[in-house]
Amino acid sequence: MGWLKKAFGSEEKPVKARTKKPVAKSSAAPARSTTAKPAAPRPRAAGHVHTSDVKAGQVTVAHDQAMTLHVLSHIPDHQPREDDPHYHLFELAKARLKRQKMWKCMIDDDLCEGQPELHHTYVEFSQINQVDPKDIEKALGLHFDTDEDFQKWVESPGNLEVLCVNHHRAHYGIHVIPGPLWEALRFHKNGGEAPAEFISAADADKLDA
Fold it and tell me: Could you tell me which of 109, 135, 113, 106 has the C-alpha nearest to residue 189?
């Protein structure tokens, strides 16, 4: 199925990760090296507790929960990205977002850091040959007449969103935090503690020492 692409094509430089007390520990390395230094946590935001839960003694006290992930990513054979005939659509989408003054992280909160980058929301470059367009059509209410239509969509705004480096591939990145926890980051309260954050295996060992 058409041309394959590299998983990360951003030309932006990674930023230094924020220094906060970790919530989720992971030994899975991000696509580009980032540095996270553990430090004192920010104050916890007050949560909403149902009265019925209090009476029933079912309230769970706020706490940090360690998690170690080992992820084996299967990347199929692919052509160099510069040979991809659809890459120019990615660049056109970026230019259009800049003209429309929409070139900023779509989360836009106090955890944002680093330059904006384009993230492939549903289908990553490296997985374009590993997904079924028919399943995507059903899930997203789309229709592709040809494989060419599908490959153009992969590089279109429907499969792209702007994220800062921190929310894309660094400390709070969608590429290094499990989906259920990262989705909560989309709606994170300013000033509150993040649902999870990435730390390297080396930094996790320092915290346990």
Answer: 109
The secondary structure of 3-20, three-state, reads: CCCCCCCCCCCCCCCCCC
Closest CA to 35 of 121, 113, 118: 113
Token reading at 110: 């106090």
Residue 131: CB atoms within 10 A of its CB come to 15
DSSP 3-state of 165: helix
Q: Which residues contact 89 (CB under 8 A, 6 or more apart)?
A: 152, 155, 156
The dihedrals phi and psi of 101, each to the nearest 5 degrees, come to: 60, 35
What is the rounded distance in angstroms from the CA atom of residue 4 to the CA atom of residue 27?
A: 27
What φ, ψ does residue 120 adopt, rounded to 5°? -85, 110
* CB half-sphere exposure, 205, CA atoms < 13 A: 4
Query: pLDDT by residue (tens digit) across 42-78?
Result: 444 445 556 665 556 677 777 677 777 777 777 767 6
Where are the chain's structural domains?
A: 1-34+83-209
Report how far Cα 35 is from the mean position of its chain's Cα atoms: 16
Q: How confident is the model at residue 22 (pLDDT cuts 50, 70, 90)?
A: very low
- Helix ranges (DSSP H) in the chain: 51-55, 87-99, 133-140, 147-154, 165-168, 179-185, 201-208
